[in-house]
Predict the structure of 2-methylcitrate dehydratase.
Amino acid sequence: MTVTHHVRVYKSEEPLPREQQLAWKIAEVATDPVEVEPAVVDMIINRIIDNASVAAASLNRGPIVAARAQALAHPVSTGGDGSSIFGLRDERTSPEWAAWANGVAVRELDYHDTFLAAEYSHPGDNIPPILAVAQHVGADGRALVRGIATGYEIQMDLVRAICLHKHKIDHVAHLGPSAAAGIGTLLGLDAETIYQAVGQGLHTTTATRQSRKGEISTWKAHAPAFAGKMAVEAVDRAMRGQTSPSPIYEGEDGVIAWMLDGPDAAYDVPLPAPGEPKRAILDSYTKEHSAEYQAQAWIDLARKLHGAHPELADPANVENIVLHTSHHTHYVIGSGANDPQKFDPQASRETLDHSIPYIFAVALQDGGWHHVDSYAPSRAARPDTVALWHKITTAEDAEWTRRYHSDDADEKAFGGRVEIRLADGSTIVDEIAVADAHPLGARPFARADYIRKFRILAEPVLEEAEISRFLSLVQRLPELTAAEVRELNIVAAPGTIDLAVAPKGLF
């Protein structure tokens, strides 16, 4: 059972008791001692494995190298034993910097879990800051599970109700509050402290969507890591008695009034009732392919068409291809974005990741998708690919938009219908609603799939003994001691990481 909280803007002279503010309601959810259900525990384990998978594949990518160097420039803070950094065995850093470095590693390849509703999100971004704090303070596995369950619940509930992208606000504005709440649960903090941390977490993480527009930069990977870092710092300040702008959501000069739908806006935010288990993570879904989530189903459809119609790989056989899809897919990763970079063979990996015409063209030609090869400059510049790519456009379809926003999980969809007009005048029409790996898809991801994904991505950089150690440890998550939580990390094989080549900066 959930409780729907009506949230609106209040003039300064209107009374709004603290206990009626959304930030306080979030804090109450975070302090609820309800136990975490076994299915949720299992999914949390899956998502820790998933995060480790994509982090392993990213260990020597530029943003991770830079973020790791920044973290290593900061020693362990005096309040605990420090936190581990993905890829490194013995080095520790302060928890906010571990949240930063590990958050970038998790996000860089755009290859971990997702939840899409009124807003979109990658709720696995909650794990790095919560885990970093757990390691630093010596929390055990049970506490870590409880903290992560809260992080997922709060971010996903905000995502269900409050749209950010419509106002060009980046989606990590929901992550700052959720990570702060999750850390509060982990630490067993009181509602007042969590309330202040949630307010600061939101206040410091509202930024524009330009990070996902035009020529997309490396900041796309840093944005959620920054939100996680801010959440750690917000909790620290709140624990020291420092307060936050209030009411942060509902205030006359607050986030809703000036950054979102304005002074007359209202939202209905669902949160678990007291004593209700936090189950939100079960509604999220991971990625089989390293691409924007709205591209997942389209890659699967292109893979199917590749097998059924191999002639489509040759652009000479194709007149045009139109992907009829949701408003969001059309305007964010489709031709509706009006971004010429989405059709540029020299575009950055981050930009190609947000170009469904490019992704569909490559998957149609190759019959699959690879997290490195499919983005290689030589692959993007292949003449036959460019020719096919430039024949692909998207179009908004009202029915697919409705299904995208549906609250009914059985009809919620992220795909669409493809219409291919061939050079001989004939057409091929097909459609797909959800990705194969989606819970309602052709091959829903289960524990074995998460482990397989981890092995595929980790085997080039981790030794077999390390892979086995990590998988054995993480699958005992609720039973882990504080010492074992500190070992919940992946260690690269000798020679994989060269710390000496890291770029130099200010620190």
Notes: The chain has two domains: 2-274, 293-432. The mean pLDDT is 96. The first strand starts at residue 2 and ends at 8. Strands lie at 2-8, 83-84, 92-93, 115-116, 120-121, 266-272, 318-325, 392-396, 416-422, 427-432.
